[in-house]
TrEMBL record:
Compositional bias of kind Basic and acidic residues: 25-54
Domain DUF5667: 172-270
InterPro entries: DUF5667 (IPR043725)
UniProt-annotated stretches for the region Disordered: 1-77
Protein name: DUF5667 domain-containing protein
Key word Transmembrane present: yes
Membrane-spanning parts: 152-169
Bias (Basic residues) ranges: 55-70
One Pfam family matching this protein: DUF5667
Annotated keywords: Membrane, Transmembrane, Transmembrane helix
Length: 297
C-alpha cells in the first residue's frame, strides 16, 4: 500500500503534491502550519476555487493573434477568388458584338424620339406632370347643404327684419318706439343737403310727414298733447323751408315744389278742422293761413 501511495504522489495525484504545486511548499496541507490555526476542509476548498479562478483570469489569450493571422491570409484568398472569376469570364465569354451594336442603336433611337416629342422648353414627362398638377386648383371647401340652407334662411330673416324696421320707422307716429329714429333720420338728411334748394325741399318733405302724423293723431283723443306738438313742428318746418327758398331763389312763391306742397298740405289738414277743438283747431287754422299764399292760383 505504501508503494501505491508513493507512486500516486510521484505522479502528482495526491493532495500534498497538488498543495506543493499551488503554494510552493511541501508540507502536508492537512497539518496546521506552525503559528497558524488548523483550516477546515470547507475553507481549503474555497481557497482552491479562488486560485483556479485567478489562474483562469490571468491566462494569456490567443484571440488577437488568431485575428491577426486571419487578416494576413485574406489578401491571398481574395487574389485567388479574383483569379477564379477571371477564368470563368474567359470561359463563358461576353455579349456578342452584334448584340451590343443592336442594343446601342435601339437606345439611341428611343432617346431621339423622346427628345423630339417633348415640347420646347419643357423638362420632359416629369415636368409635364408637375405642371399639370400645379395647373389644377385645389378643391375648394364647400359647406354641406344643411349649413348653406341655414345661412340663407338667416340672411333672409335678417333682410326681412331690416325691411320691417324700415317700414315701421317710415310709418311711425309720435308715441311709437321707432319714432325717435324717424326724426333722427330726417334731421340727418336735412344736414347732408348739398345746397340751400335741396335743404328746403327736404324740409318740405319733413313738413308733409308731420301733416300725415296729425291726421293719425287726430283720430286718437288720448294723444291730444302729442297732436298739438306735431302741429307746431309742422308749422316751424314749413317756415324754415320758405326762408331757405327765399335765400336761395330770391323768392319762394315761384317755386313749383312749394306750390304743390301747399296744395297737398291743405288737402290733408283742412278736412281735420271740424274734428279738432281748442288750441289744436286754432293752430291748424293758422297753418292753413300760412300756406294760403303759396298755392297754385
Amino acid at each position: 500500500m505504501d508503494d501505491r501511495r508513493s507512486r500516486r504522489c510521484a505522479s502528482g495525484g495526491c493532495a500534498g503534491a497538488r498543495h506543493a504545486r499551488r503554494t510552493g511548499r511541501h508540507d502536508d496541507p492537512a497539518e496546521p502550519r506552525h503559528g497558524a490555526p488548523h483550516e477546515p476542509p470547507r475553507e481549503r476548498a474555497r481557497d482552491a476555487a479562488h486560485d483556479r479562478g485567478h489562474d483562469r483570469l490571468h491566462r494569456p489569450r490567443r484571440t488577437a493573434a488568431r485575428r491577426r493571422s486571419a487578416r494576413e491570409r485574406m489578401p491571398e484568398e481574395a487574389e485567388e477568388v479574383i483569379a477564379r472569376l477571371a477564368e470563368l469570364r474567359d470561359a463563358l465569354g461576353g455579349p456578342r458584338p452584334e448584340f451590343r451594336a443592336r442594343l446601342r442603336e435601339t437606345l439611341l433611337s428611343a432617346h431621339e424620339e423622346l427628345r423630339r416629342s417633348a415640347p420646347e422648353g419643357s423638362g420632359g414627362p416629369a415636368a409635364d406632370r408637375a405642371a399639370a398638377a400645379l395647373a389644377v386648383p385645389p378643391p375648394a371647401f364647400r359647406p354641406s347643404l344643411r349649413v348653406r340652407l341655414r345661412s340663407a334662411a338667416l340672411a333672409l330673416a335678417l333682410l326681412a327684419a331690416l325691411l320691417g324696421m324700415s317700414w315701421g320707422v317710415q310709418h311711425a307716429v309720435p308715441g311709437d318706439t321707432l319714432y325717435p329714429i324717424k326724426r333722427a333720420t330726417e334731421s340727418a338728411l336735412i344736414r347732408l343737403s348739398v345746397d340751400e334748394t335741396a335743404r328746403a325741399e327736404r324740409e318740405l318733405d319733413t313738413a308733409h310727414n308731420r301733416a300725415t302724423e296729425v291726421a293719425v293723431l287726430a283720430a286718437d283723443p288720448a294723444r291730444k298733447k302729442l297732436l298739438e306738438k306735431t302741429i307746431d313742428d309742422m308749422a316751424s318746418t314749413t317756415r324754415s323751408a320758405i326762408r331757405t327758398l327765399t335765400r336761395a331763389k330770391g323768392g319762394a312763391r315761384d317755386h313749383g315744389k312749394l306750390r304743390r306742397f301747399a296744395a297737398e298740405q291743405r288737402n290733408v289738414v283742412e278736412p281735420l278742422i271740424p274734428a279738432l277743438n281748442g288750441s289744436s283747431k286754432e293752430k291748424a287754422s293758422a297753418y292753413l293761413h300760412l300756406i294760403e299764399g303759396f298755392e297754385d292760383p
